[in-house]
Amino acid sequence: MTISSNLWLARLLALAIPALLIAGAYIAQYGFGLYPCEMCWWQRYPHFAAIVLALLAFIIPPARLWVVLAALAILVSGAIGAYHAGVEYGWWYGVTSCARLDVPQGANALDTIMNTPLIRCDEAQWRLIGISLAGWNFLISTIGGLSVFWLLLRKESDA
User: Fold this and answer.
1) What residue range is the signal peptide (predicted)?
2) What are the pLDDT digits (tens) for 43-81?
3) Model pTM score
């Protein structure tokens, strides 16, 4: 059974979009010190799911089902990004407790608390042409997820 070129490209996009966005998030975090707030983490979780679902599309039939689920997960991350961007721009209120604390095994909890940066969900740490990282996630995820659906719905050309 051969896979159509549209499905092949949709499958590739469904893997590449979340993988590149997650890679960018980790580069921003560990390379440039832009630590994620709680709502930033919320945006990452659907991308992790999308990566797994897109990988399943490469190994377990029916590939189209896994790609559809991956595209939905990408769109969910985009929706969370839109909500988070709205909080950053002051369009609506977000969550009030936005500090994230992970205490490593065997570490002193007080030292961890004192050395953990407080990252607010309502203040963008970085912007490019006035758009925050959450806003960029919204734009890229929404356009990417819709592109995957467009490819899945597009008829194959006879060329």
Assistant:
1) none
2) 999 999 999 999 999 999 999 999 999 999 999 999 999
3) 0.80
Please name the residues in contact with 42: beta carbons below 8 A apart, sequence gap of 6 or more: 80, 84
Assigned CATH class of 5-153: mainly alpha
Token pair for 131:
């758009």
Q: Give which of 92, 99, 89 is closest to 40, Cα–Cα.
A: 99
- Both tokens of 144, joined, read 């990417």
Phi, psi (degrees; rounded to nearest 5) at 78 = -60, -40
Q: Which two tokens stand for residue 68?
A: 């559809």
DSSP state of 155: P
**CB within 8 A of 40, min separation 6: which ones?**
25, 84, 119, 121, 133, 134
Instruction: Note whether 65 and 73 are within 8 A (CB).
Output: no
Distance CA 38, CA 121 (A): 7
Domain ranges across the chain: 5-153
| Paired tokens of 67 | 């790609």
The SS3 assignment for 121 reads coil
